[in-house]
């Protein structure tokens, strides 16, 4: 007679393996954001980043134009201090009216 499989050990604080982080905190964490190339876009993103990371340095922002120049790719490197902080930052960026995509 075969034994039923042994249940896997609980992973993460709440038993959800998706909650376990592979990131060591604090760390520099790049976030890529895409949106229409418009006045105030980069400044708006910097303000959102600064609200989650008071030490955010806007001089580290990297910009890339789309092929036809209608869109702008922006890389924001924040100091990540927790999974919750990153989740909240992603939600804030994703819901911003000027933002099309957050990676």
How does this structure look, described?
- The chain has 103 residues and is α+β, with helices and mostly antiparallel strands.
- It has helices spanning 41-52, 83-95, and strands at residues 27-36, 62-65, 71-80, 99-102.
- The N and C termini lie far apart (50 Å).
- The protein has a four-stranded antiparallel sheet, covered by helices on one side.
Which percent range fits the helix content? Answer: 10-25%
Fraction of residues in β-strands: 25-35%
**Global shape:** elongated
What's the N-to-C terminus distance? 50 Å
| Counted beta strands | 4
The count of helical stretches stands at 2
Secondary-structure class: alpha+beta
Radius of gyration: 18 Å
**Low-pLDDT runs:** 7-13
- Arithmetic mean pLDDT: 88
Biggest β-sheet: strands ordered side by side in the sheet: 2-3-1-4
How can the largest sheet be summarized? Answer: 4 strands, antiparallel
Order of helices and strands: EHEEHE
Give the SSE map.
Elements: E1 27-36, H1 41-52, E2 62-65, E3 71-80, H2 83-95, E4 99-102
Antiparallel strand pairs: 1-3, 1-4, 2-3
Summarize the model shown.
This protein has helices spanning 41-52, 83-95; strands at residues 27-36, 62-65, 71-80, 99-102. By secondary structure, the chain is of the alpha+beta class. A hairpin with a 5-residue loop joins strand 2 and strand 3.
């Amino acid at each position: 007679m075969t034994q039923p499989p042994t249940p896997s050990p609980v992973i993460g604080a709440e038993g959800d393996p998706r909650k376990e982080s592979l990131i060591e905190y604090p760390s520099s964490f790049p976030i890529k954001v895409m949106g229409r190339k418009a006045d105030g876009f980069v400044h708006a993103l910097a303000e959102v980043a600064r609200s989650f990371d008071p030490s955010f340095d806007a001089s580290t922002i990297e910009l890339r134009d789309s092929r036809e120049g209608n869109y702008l790719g922006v890389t924001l490197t924040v100091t990540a201090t927790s999974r919750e902080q990153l989740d909240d930052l992603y939600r804030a960026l994703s819901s911003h009216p000027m933002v099309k995509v957050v990676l």
